[in-house]
Design a protein that fits this description.
153 residues, 5-stranded parallel β-sheet, two-stranded antiparallel ribbon, 7 helices, 7 strands, 20% strand
Length: 153
Amino acid sequence: MTGSHATGNDPMRDTAPPVRTAPRVLVIEDDDPVRTIIGRLLTGAGFEPILAKSAAEAEAYLTESISLLLLDFRIPGSRGDLFFYYASSRYPILRRRTVFLTGDTTAEVERMVSHTGCLLRHKPFVNSSLISLLWSLVEPGSRPQMQGRNPTG
């Protein structure tokens, strides 16, 4: 054999497919059981959840590697909208990749969230609906193939 095949340096063979990492979702939820359930749901759906129970804890996790923000409107030490403004000023991509969760159905919360331009989902939420919404916010083609699994149950 001659050329690159003779030396084992086949450029086509040495090129590994790009590794696709799971989108990282910063979840801010002060209710421990709800936070745990959301974490499991996101993991099963192909996301990498980063779980925080307060604004202060979430601030420590806030980096450019965060793809999505999923936050309760009422969080210890802050409000969800205030944390959103802070986070999106540091990482503008989060302006269009944030979803608020709340059990508060008052007009005041609806108004405050609408000022952010973000989406709002009320608790309790339908798992499959939330997962579909989150996938629609990340880059097209970033959803991993999940053969033989129904992660949104």
